[in-house]
Structure formats: C-alpha cells, structure tokens
Amino acid sequence: MIKRLQQQGVKIGSCSGYPKPVMDVLVPAAADYGYQPDCVIASDECAAGSRPGPWMALENVQRLGIHRVSGCVKVDDSAPE
Question: Which phi and psi (to 5°) does residue 41 adopt?
Fold first, then answer.
C-alpha cells in the first residue's frame, strides 16, 4: 500500500517513539523489507516533545513541504489518551 500511494504522489512520513540512534538502525532494516517512508522523525528530534503531542507529525509536514495540514491523514498504532 505504501509503495502504491507513493507511486500516486502521496508523501509518506513516519513518527516513532524511538530516539534517533535507534531509528538509524531500524530505518535501513525496514527498507530491507520494502518500507521506505519519505521522511522519518524520531522521538528526540522535536524540541517541543514527542507523543502524545502532534509535534512529530507536524515536523513531517514541514520536512515534506506540505502546505495544507488539512490534506494530511495521520494513522497511529496506539490509542489516544
């Protein structure tokens, strides 16, 4: 699904609860299995904090150059608080 969306011009950003040193290992490992998002934000990359706030998702928006947040969809693997 990710590849199909990317082929249609949809940008894929990823937010992780892991810090950057862990993501530096996981991102290439995920690529070996075919998962290659256009942008990855680790939990320690946002000065404002990480979960449960919106900061990592908003950092994806900025790095991906998206002009309308209303055009974004956030999919999560955890229940909201």
Answer: -115, 125
